[in-house]
Design brief:
Bound molecules: zinc ion
Radius of gyration: 20 Å
Oligomer: single chain
Order of helices and strands: EEEEEHHHHEEHHH
Strand order of the largest sheet: 1-2-3-5-4
CATH class of the largest domain: Mainly Alpha
Number of domains: 2
Length: 246
């Protein structure tokens, strides 16, 4: 038998399902190992030390017997954050659901470790009380480069002119006044903000003051862009849309 490797991994449980009579299988997005499956023996038992840890969206350090491409086994876990504020708010929780589903879709296409950092910093900001809509939009914008479909944001997508008047999902980025045709024209503030958001480090955000118009324009652009170019169809997005249209 090949001996198992004992390691500590930092990660966030994105799903858990029952296994046998008393155990659970956890899917964890980790900092260093991508998405892993972990067996938590006896986690459903009332007296199990794993009981409180093995919940969806628990952020913890997990000690595991690690096996590449197979189910690892949980030995112990230290909770870092349970995201209590998010879990007490249906809207915030829906955004956490969505960004978690999106993140696992992105990690399946790209193993870059910065994806985990973006995901974690977005959750921490939502937990801190920042607007989940705009935090989610920043994350979505950043993920586009990992999906290999970053829109053209340094000038007009047709001619390269840095003086742009709107952003078009159909055309694939910013467009200037000569190439705007019948595209919807967004506000100047939206253009400025998209340029800033592409480079902003989510963990360093201390203030977010965005008008509803700008928020809607950025969100509409990203929705349209994701539909057209990423091939990701997420169930949680549908729910989110029904929630925000209320
Ligand atoms: Zn142009």
């Amino acid at each position: 038998m090949i001996p198992l490797e004992m390691i500590e991994v930092e990660g966030i449980i994105i799903s858990e399902k029952p296994y046998g009579e008393s155990s659970k299988i956890l899917n964890i997005i980790t900092k260093d190992k991508g998405i892993i499956g972990v067996l938590a023996k006896g986690a459903k038992r009332l007296k199990s030390p794993f009981r409180s840890v093995c919940q969806r969206f628990c952020y913890a350090n997990f000690n595991i017997s690690y096996k590449d491409d197979k189910l690892s086994v949980l030995i112990s876990a230290d909770v870092i954050n349970n995201f209590k504020n998010i879990k007490n708010d249906i809207k915030k929780l829906s955004y956490l659901n969505f960004i978690s589903e999106l993140t696992s879709g992105v990690i399946k296409q790209n193993t870059d470790k910065r994806i985990y950092d973006i995901y974690l910093s977005a959750i921490l900001k939502i937990e801190e009380g920042f607007d989940p809509v705009i935090i989610t939009n920043i994350l979505e914008l950043k993920y586009l480069s990992f999906l290999g479909v970053l829109p053209k944001l340094d000038g007009c997508v047709v001619c390269g002119n840095p003086k742009v008047v709107t952003i078009s999902a159909y055309k694939g980025g910013f467009v200037c006044k000569d190439h705007v045709n019948d595209d919807y024209v967004v506000s100047e503030k939206t253009i400025k903000l998209i340029r800033v958001l592409e480079y902003v480090d989510i963990s360093k955000i201390t203030k977010l003051d965005v008008s509803n118009t700008v928020k809607k324009e950025i969100n509409d652009f990203l929705d349209d862009y994701y539909d057209r170019y990423t091939g990701l169809y997420l169930k949680s997005k549908k729910f989110l849309k029904s929630l925000t249209s209320l």
